Fold this sequence. Notes:
Structural class of chain B: alpha+beta
Shape of chain A: globular
Order of helices and strands of chain B: HHHEHEEHEEHEEHHEHEE
Mean pLDDT of chain B: 84
Order of helices and strands of chain A: EHHHHHHHHHHHHEHE
Largest interface: A-B, 53 and 60 residues
Strand content of chain B: 15-25%
Low-confidence stretches of chain B: 1-38
Radius of gyration of chain B: 18 Å
Helix content of chain B: 25-40%
Bound molecules: iron/sulfur cluster
Oligomer: heterodimer
Number of strands of chain A: 3
Number of helices of chain A: 13
Number of helices of chain B: 9
Largest sheet of chain A: 2 strands, antiparallel
Radius of gyration of chain A: 21 Å
Amino acid sequence: MTAAARIEFREHPGWGRGFLTLAGALGLLVLGGLGGAHVMESEGHWVTGMSNRIVWGTPHVFAVFLIVAASGALNVASISSVFGRELYKPLARLSGVLAVSLLAGGLAVLVLDLGRPDRLIVAMTVYNFKSIFAWNIFLYTGFFAVVIVYLWMMMEKRMNRFSKPVGTFAFLWRLVLTTGTGSIFGFLVARQAYDTAVMAPMFIAMSLAFGHAIFLLVVMAASAGTGRPLGDEVVRRLKNLLGIFLAATLYFVAVQHLTNLYIAERQGVERFLLAEGGIYTWLFWVGHVGIGCLVPIALVFAPATASSRGAAGLAAVLAVVGGIAQIYVIIIGGQAYPLVLVPGMEAAGSVLDAGIAPYVPSVYEIALGLGGVGLALLLATIAIKVLPVLPESLADVPAK
Amino acid sequence: MTGAATMELTRRALLQGAAATVVALAPGVTLLLGPAPSEARAPGTPVSAKTRWGLLVDVSRYAEVADTVVEACRTENGWTGHGRPLTDPQWVRNVTLNDPRTGAVRTLPVMCQHCEHPPCVDVCPTGASFRRADGVVLVDKHICIGCRYCMMACPFGVRFFVHENVTGQKPHAPRGKGTVESCTLCVHRLDAGRRPACVEAAERKSPGAMIFGDLNDPNSEIARAVGRHVALRLRADLGLDQGVFYKGLNG
Ligand code: SF4
Ligand code: SF4
């Protein structure tokens, strides 16, 4: 008798006020995002903080964060199917649902920030196979398909036996997907802040951490919201994993900066990001390293807080906030530093060359970014409501 | 669709390269303006890979023509701004480089360098960014989705996202809000056997400050000048093999 046979999955019955309020609030976020995108498209991007120097702005920060997190949200399903950990089985469906919904939110932001979102069909039909971006379009659409099939294998009893091979395939696919996302930056030879192979593994570590943090929060919220018990052991395992993923992220970030510091011509950009970059330096040290990694790691492992559920939730919130700060530094900070036309010479004369590029996110960009978050959570909420995604109980099973 | 068409063009250009060069000369242009870039292409003739258009800037003399050059490009191609330097286009811009050790100052024009191995083309997801057989790098405005990845990839910051509605376009230089644009090397003029507007304008003011021509033709003025002088390219370390050379950048 396997544990799987005992798990009863159920949709959430009734249309309670709580559900409607949550769905309404998330729906408003989505509408706000559409509004922001509409202004950007009809007025043109000049109304945003973006420019010919900061060509990717806040929408990209949110989009990349959500896409990276989507891959990480699949952690629990992978651990359950691929590595056969029974404890995680009850959560595997939610893990798959969240992966799909986060990816949908991220892609929506990415598409609506295009100069010509109306030409999406062009992007889907005309490919330049040398482009990492084109590859990513395949990786993203493929990820949807693979995870949806995987969910079906898990939800349909007759198909259950395929959930391991399909789950393994999904696991491999997401590793490639995050490598692809990291490589969007890693292959930019022109930009000193990005051009390094460490970008790919660093993005994988970030994806594990950010996606896992969101997953932990959604599990806690969903069990509270649907009135289903959540066992201490489940929370303990999940939060410990979060701590390990955050430590891995920190490790790759350190490797990335140390490598760059070793390359003489990159010391300028490193000094900028790590010491003299104002907001970017603050976001890096305080936002990402402190709030995003060190504090949550401490909350998760320090004896005083290790058994507190509140501390685990706080750690996950901080990991998300610090993760957004980290992506902001990578994307915006990396562009703010000027391109070097002739090494050793200082350029002046045009705002396109001289000095650090100014950037302040506009309300439209922030609305669009949050709209993506809203869409991701709205889809997950609806799935939990209408599909048998959550088990009736997540209480700890007494030891066998 | 257009990607395939471009490939077809390139393939045909390669196959028919020899035949394509046998076209009428435009002697009038040659006489008036010194060495002509080459002959005009007959309508329907494919671009030939035998040609590699290039530009040599004499940095020691460029300051005299700097403003003229930018004005000529703006007038020719109709890119105008809205007084917002960070979002306005600058198909060609004047950059002042200052050597902190010697205090020496140089002004040079920076525009699309028409790389032989253009990163902008490599990264473009739809193939909207493309390189013609004769070395001119262009954006197909009809399939550009405005993702701006090419702007991230270009080492020189010479591509511009059209941030607002455009007015007063020139028929030969279409522009469109939400797409990316850059110096076309006045491809409409090249195809008519003429030289880029900036080169002609500079020529009137200070002959020789900018030399344009076919780098593949060993007898062209530009090929001889590039061979004779120490002509540098920006970020030569990247190995992009640009078509734009700068003479006197270092001396
Ligand atoms: S200079 Fe920039 S835009 Fe022009 S071909 Fe090279 S990479 Fe592309
Ligand atoms: S902005 Fe246009 S030309 Fe540039 S990479 Fe994207 S689709 Fe290609």
